[in-house]
């Protein structure tokens, strides 16, 4: 359960994030889904490198953690700079890195810590047939909401 759900104030939760980022270099924030919006997860702390934060939407918690961990390992463990517009073949599935147009609308903890310096990339995952949402016969942005403009549109 989330820290605020467990009784922390927003300031206490943000201070805990600051301590976690200081100790480990980053933190994963998971946001529960609702009846109309899927769950998502994102990093906090990559801005300090400087690097965009990473967002994954529409996967279960285990899949979100696995995708984000693999991407963070590329950045923190191997020194790669991930950039919008590329497709990465990850262990679980391919992802397309798309720029998040309004980080203040989705990666709230990162924006609370870093203000306008906080940028983000959405790791848009391919479905089981290898198609990205905009490549599907019927585009599926309900399962995986997009926080930027798909390529070519």
Can you describe this structure?
With 153 residues, the chain is of the alpha+beta class. It has one domain (10-135). It has helices at residues 10-24, 61-77, 108-114, and strands at 27-31, 40-44, 53-57, 87-89, 94-99, 120-125. Strands 1-2-3-6-5-4 form a six-stranded mixed beta sheet. The N and C termini lie far apart (38 Å). 29% of the residues are buried.
Global shape? globular
Number of helices: 3
> Helicity range of the residues?
25-40%
Distance between the termini: 38 Å
SSE pattern, N- to C-terminal: HEEEHEEHE
The average pLDDT value, as a whole number, equals 92
Tally of individual domains: 1
Secondary-structure blueprint:
Layout (H helix, E strand, L loop, with lengths): L9 H15 L2 E5 L8 E5 L8 E5 L3 H17 L9 E3 L4 E6 L8 H7 L5 E6 L28
Parallel strand pairs: 3-6
Antiparallel strand pairs: 1-2, 2-3, 4-5, 5-6
What is the structure about, briefly put?
This is DUF4262 domain-containing protein. The chain contains 3 helices and 6 strands. With 153 residues, the protein is α+β, with helices and mostly antiparallel strands.
């Amino acid at each position: 359960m989330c820290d605020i759900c467990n009784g922390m104030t927003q300031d206490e939760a943000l201070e805990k994030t600051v301590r976690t980022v200081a100790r480990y270099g980053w933190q994963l924030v998971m946001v529960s889904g609702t009846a109309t919006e899927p769950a998502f997860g994102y990093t906090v702390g990559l801005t300090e490198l400087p690097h965009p934060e990473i967002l994954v939407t529409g996967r279960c918690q285990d899949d979100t953690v696995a995708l984000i961990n693999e991407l963070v390992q590329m950045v923190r463990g191997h020194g790669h700079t991930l950039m919008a517009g590329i497709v990465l073949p990850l262990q679980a599935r391919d992802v397309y890195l798309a720029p998040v147009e309004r980080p203040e609308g989705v990666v709230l903890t990162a924006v609370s810590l870093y203000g306008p310096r906080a940028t983000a990339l959405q790791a848009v995952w391919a479905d089981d047939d290898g198609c990205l949402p905009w490549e599907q016969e019927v585009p599926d942005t309900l399962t995986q909401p997009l926080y930027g403009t798909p390529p070519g549109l």
